[in-house]
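so my prof wants the structure for this chain in the tokens format not the other one, which i didnt know existed until like an hour ago. anyway here's the sequence
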Amino acid sequence: MPLRFAAMPCATQPRRLFIQASVILLYNGIPFYIYNIIRCAFCLACVVRGKFYAFDFLLWAVYNYFKLSFYFVKRGGETVKPQVPEYCLFQGCYNPDYERETAKCKKKCSAYNKLAPGAKKRRKKILRSLLGKTGELFEIMPPFWCDYGYNIEIGERFYANHNLIITDGAKVKLGSDVFIAPNCCFTTAEHPVHPEQRKRGWEIAKPITVGDNVWIGAGSVVLAGVTIGDGSVIGAGSVVTKSVPPGVVAAGVPCRVMRNITEADKTRYPLHESLMTGKEE
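here's what i got, hopefully its the right format
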């Protein structure tokens, strides 16, 4: 609802009108450059009249507060970012609230992807500010793109190779000791099959969960609502449309379980001599 104020007691009628107009415009989120035009015009008028009002600078500070806080929903005294509903149709496209959040996320991703290969500390700093939860040891090789960032959680010793894409409208939880090969995509978003609903910009979001010790091969796509169990391997080029149980090798389009992982897999390849010390029995 637009904000409206009753008249405020002020020294002069122009000053009172300016305060009322400014607060209403700021509350309703006018662009920064428009407010600055109004502010500069008022300052010029004050100079011409030989007066100076300190409250004008206070209004500038108030605008910046609203500019930040109005992008969030306030609950219980805490500011939380807009959340995407799961397992139901919602207005995903053409939604200013979501568009603002994705724009901020893409800006961070762009900055991350432009860093030099040796700038590991700066990369981690950006990722920690971008993602919802991280471990102490993790690595995501650029380029990396996501939609919101704060819906992504990664565990300890997480590693993702180049060109990882995560559309994280819903939660994406990636466990510890997860290896993701190049050119993989995790997408929580679905669109309606019916064209009338699709053209309205409606979407469906379903979370993705990947357990611990999972290896996902190059060029794989993991679709919305999928869970991959602990210790499983997804073959390269797979399209994972349904959940995969723990401890299996799965591959294909669509991805299907090929076999269980067994103790025999430990002796599939010979050990290099550098690994012979402390060899497992």
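also thought this was worth mentioning. The mean pLDDT is 82.
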